[in-house]
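Hi support team,

I'm opening this ticket because the web form for multi-chain structure prediction keeps timing out on my end. I have pasted the exact lines I submitted so you can reproduce it. The total is 691 residues across two entries, so I didn't expect it to be a heavy job. Is there a limit I'm missing, or should I split the entries? Thanks in advance, R.K.
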Amino acid sequence: MKVLVINSGSSSLKYQLYDMTTEAVLAKGMVERIGMDSSILTHKPTGKEPVTEVSEILEHNTAIRKVLDKLTDKVSGVLESIDEIQAVGHRVVHGGEYFKASSLVDAQAKEEVRKLIDLAPLHNPAAMMGINATEANMPGVPQVVVFDTAFHQTMPEKAYLYPIPRVLYNKYKVRRYGAHGTSHHYVSQKAAEFLGKPIESLKIITCHIGNGASLTAVEGGVSIDTSMGMTPLEGLMMGTRSGDLDPAIVPYVMNKEDLTVNEVNSMLNKHSGLLAISGISSDMREITDGMANGEPNATLAFQMYEYRLRKYIGSYAAAMNGVDAIVFTAGVGENSIIVREKVCENLTYLGVELDKSLNAVRSDDPRRISSATSKVEVLVVPTNEELVIARDTYRLVNEQL
Amino acid sequence: MKFTKIGLVGVGTVGQGIAEMLAKSGLEVHMLEDSGEKLDAAIATISNGLDKQIEKWGITSSEKKLILGRLRRAESVEDMASCQLVIESTTEEIDNKKIIIRKLDEICSPEVILASTTSTLSLTELAGACTHPERIIGMHFLIPMTEIDVVEVVRGIRTSDETIQNARSFLEETLHKKGIQVYESPGLVTTRLICILINEAVAVLAEGIATAEDIDASMRDGYDFKYGPLEMCDRFGLDSVNAALSRMFKEYGELKYRPNYLLKKMVRAGQFGVKTGEGFFRYNKDGVRV
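Hello R.K., no limit was hit. The queue was backed up. Here is the completed structure from your submission:
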C-alpha cells in the first residue's frame, strides 16, 4: 500500500509518499508561500533529480493538485497514476480531549477537528484545509488524522489540570495537552526495542529538543506528564519561546511597556528563549559557536537552556520515582553533543554516567551514549514523525478493509 | 468570494494603517498615490512603524519582510482591475472621491466591491457617479487599524444586500474584525459620538474649568479610556476633528456639532496634534508624549 503523509500549515504543505510494504520513502517535498503568486514547490523524488517550481498557488486545493501532478509526472514522478495512493495521513496539531488516538476521517472526525480551532487557531484550520483539499482531489481515498496531542491523553488529572479555578476547565477546557506526542511515542518505543526490554517495565524520559522543545515522562509506555501545556509555550526554554515563567510577569510587563495582548504573546513566543538571552540567534548551533568564541551572552543562554532542561529531567525522575532511560531526539537532541554532555554531567546523583566517546559519534541510528556501568541508560534516538503517521494510516485503513 | 488582492487608492495616514493591516492579514495590497514620491514616503512610514513594533516585540524582522513584500506599487488606476476589493482612502473631498470611484467603476468588473473610508461624506452621492451603485459601500476603520477590531460597514441607499454580506464576510473571515452595519449618516456612530466628547472636552478647557492634563486624567482613569479626549484629538489630528465637526454641523444644523472656538484657533495656528508635534500636548517624532 502506498500512503501519502501531509502536514499542512496555513501557508505551506509538506508531504512524503511511502511504500508501506518496505516503509521506503518514494518522494517528499513541500509547497511554500501558498496564497501568493510566487509559491514554491520543491519535489524530491528518491533516486531522481529534485525539482523546484515557482507558480501561483492560491489555496491548498491547488497545492495538493500540483503535488499529485509532480508525483505522477513523466520525468520527476514516482507513480503511474494517483490511484496508486491508497490512503492519506494528516498531521493535526490539536486533538483536544476527543482524540485519544489517530482516527479515520469521517464527518464526525472533521466536525471534532473543526471544533478544536478555538484551542489551536493557527494550526487546526490549516489541517482542515489539507483534509478538504485531499477530499476534493482524491475522492474516495481514505484519510487518517494523527494528532500531536493524542499520546498525552493518558496523563492523569493531577498532571493535566492547572491549579486555577476549575470552572475554566469546565467552560473552556483550559488544561495541559502537550505536543510532539507522535515523536515522544515513537522514540520511547524505539528505546525499549533498542534496550530489548518490554516498554511496560520501563520509566523513560524523552527529550524532544528542536526549535520547539518538550519533555515527556513515559511510564510503562504511556505519557504521564509532559512539559508543554495548553499551548506550546510552556516548559523548556526554546529557540524563541520563553518556556516557564512567573505568570505575574505578563500583566506587569504589559502595564509597564504598554503592550497589547498580541504584543506580549509575540514577545513570549517569538522574541524570547535563546534569541533573547544570547542576542545572537535562536539556533543552538550558533549559540554553541558563540560560546566557543567566548561570547558571554551565548554562554549564558546555553547555561540557562541546559539548566532548565536538567531541572525538568530531575522533576520527571521524581514524578516516576526513578528513571531507567533518558532519550534525546529532534534537531538539538540528535545533533548537539555538548548539550547532551552538559546535561548528563550534572545528573550523576541519578546514576547517569556518560561515555564521552559514544556521545561524540554521529549516526542516523538509535544508539547508547551512556557507559556500561551507568545506572540510567542514555540514548539518542532519531525521531520520524512522518513514518508514525504513515504507519497509523496504514494500520487504520487496513483494519477498515 | 475569496479575497487575495486588495486595491488601495490614497495612502495617507488612514491608508497607511489600512495597507499595513491588510498586509499583516496575508493580503496583497496594490497601492496607488498621486505620485511615486508620495508612495515612497508612505512605504517608508509603514516600514518605520514596523521597526517600532519589532522594538516592542510585536513582530519579528522576518515578519516585517513578509509584510513589506505584500505591499505592491500600482502605476495607474488600471492596475486595480485585478483586485477583488478596492478601498478608496483619499482626503475627504467629495469631488475628488467621485472622480476616483467613477474611474474604478469603469474598470473593475461588477462583482468587485468598491469601498470608501469616508465617515462624513455621502456614500449615496459617491454611488451616484457609478453605473453599478449597488457595489459601493463604506468601510470605516478606526486608528490604530491593526489593534481595533471593529469596522463600521456603511450602507448607502443603493448598496445591495450581497455587497454588505460579502464585505462583512471579508472583514470577519479574512481580517477577523467585527463588522457593524451602519446606515449612511454623517459621522456614522463612532465619529459622531467621539467628536461630541472631544468638542466638549475642548470647551471645558477653554472655559478654564480644568487643565488639559486633568481633563484627560479624569476621563482616561475615570472611565477606563486608553487616552483622554484631548490626547485622542491630538492623535486623530485637530484639523480632522475640526473638519468632521464642521461637516456634521453643516449636515445636521445642530449647535452641538459646532467646533469650539479654541479648536478652530489651534487649527489656524497649525497645531494639529501628533502630526505637527504639538496640539493639546507635545509629542516627539515617534508620536510619544513628551
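A quick check on our side: Residues 185 and 370 of chain A are 22 Å apart (CA to CA). Let us know if the file doesn't open in your viewer.
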